[in-house]
Amino acid sequence: MPQPAISRSTDGSSTRIVVSGTWTLSGIGDDIHPLEVEMRSLGVTDGVTWDLTGVDRLDSVGAAVLLRGWHGEYPVALLCPDAKRAIIDRLRAVRTRAPERQRRDWLAWVLALGAGAQRFRDHAIEIVALLGRLVLDCAHILRHPADMPWKEVSANLYKAGARALPVTSLVGFLIGVVLSYLSALQLNRFGADVYIVNLLGIGIIRELGPVLVAVLVAGRSGSAMTAQLGVMRVTEEIDALSIMGVSRTLRLVLPKVLALSIAMPLITAWTSGVALIGGMVAAQIQLGLSYGFFIETLPKAVPVANVWIGLAKGLSFGFLIALLACHFGLRVKPNTESLASNTTRSVVTAITMVILADAVFAIATRRIGITG
Predict the structure, then answer these.
(1) Which of 39, 127, 188, 336 has its CA 20 to 30 A from that of 134?
(2) 240-269 residue pLDDT tens
(3) Which CATH homologous superfamily contains domain 5-96?
(4) SS (HEC) of 94-115
């Protein structure tokens, strides 16, 4: 393989520079820097003829070395075969192409707002359609009770309910301890230690317990439901059910929604109880309140309406989480990227809707269960 070489000859007032050899990546090798230095020293001036007819082979690397030596422009006098000139032309076009200047669109935020509103509308329509199919499935179950998928309901009740008890119990107990310690520091300054029972009872049973459980279940069970349906979409199992004439909402969506709607009030009651135990232990350590006083005062300080409000929140939150999880699971396209993005959206949307629903509950029940 001939090595790349540059030779210069002068005949009177004319100068001729002959380029020869193999000007490719493998031919140039480690000599690229010396060649560039030599090219720059020769320069591109009038009266100098560059002769590339002796070049055996030329690729983009060799063309780049030549263009750097020529400062991106052709010499005034150039002898070059058409095939090799075409290679240099292609590389020169890429090097000299000016980047497109992006125009600043001052109305881009309007377009983004419109696109967001359109996506919200599409999601709302699909959720309402899914809810309508669930209502039709319930009507079908009333007419044909034997078609009720009890096994699927039982399996989802165990996965979403019973298996969530350990983590909700741990978090609930710790939240009760933290809330009790923080409340005790403030109440002790005013000599109102006994009112920690009221604060913990109302705060945990009515508000903190249902919301805490909903956030944990949305991250744990909601994401699992979305991922399960998403994998079934990727593997085309849901399409197979449709081909066999099996209702996907009856077999896949209804058991999940029903199971989580049943499990959430029970988990809420359990977690609220564990959180109250944690608060009671912290109150005994921090303020010296006995367990007997705490247990005796709690029913008097917390009207029973707060218990029903907390359970109603748990039921509503469970229904919302399961419905949104199934909605995003059925939207998964047959690729892993769609599965990951829809699982994330499912959790974020479920938590957001839980907070929104809790705000609605707070406004609607502001005069219930709160003694003046």
Answers:
(1) 336
(2) 888 888 888 888 999 999 999 999 999 999
(3) STAS domain (3.30.750.24)
(4) HHHCCCCCCCCCCCHHHHHHHH
